[in-house]
Amino acid sequence: MAIDERRSRCLAELADVLVSVFPDGAVWTRIAESSRNFFFGWPLKNQPANLAQYSRSVSIYFSDEALNAYWKLATPEREAARRALRRVILQGMVGYDEGRAFKRYAVKEAWRIDTWPMWDEAIGA
Question: Closest Cα partner for 28 from 101, 89, 81?
Fold first, then answer.
């Protein structure tokens, strides 16, 4: 089941804004059916060949209410919402380990950041 175009554009806009929070080379991905989250990952520089070459994924989740509230915001309010979201993500990254010590090709569990309730409250969702 594919998500609606509005939700897809909203998630893409938020992901594009958040890429600057992560190291150079970070890219975001989203499973087509996912209506509430996306993932970030990036290449790990200067890693020995036998260790992980790509970071442990960061999965960012949103409530339906927050995404709907964000979509309805005017442009100036969206900028304030994006700044608040960056703060939430930076707080959520405390304690994150990008997985440099993992053996190459080892499965790494994603680091999950749920933006509820902090971002929801910041944007009035």
Answer: 89
Q: In what order do the strands lie in the sheet with 111-114?
A: 27-29, 37-41, 58-61, 111-114
CA gap 45, 55 in Å, rounded: 10
Distance, in Å, from the CA atom of 88 to the CA atom of 26, rounded to the nearest integer, reads 18
Express each pLDDT in 35-87 by its tens digit: 899 999 999 999 999 999 999 999 999 999 999 999 999 999 999 999 999 99
pLDDT for 6-15, tens place per residue? 888 899 999 9
Q: In the predicted model, what is the mean pLDDT of residues 106-124?
A: 94
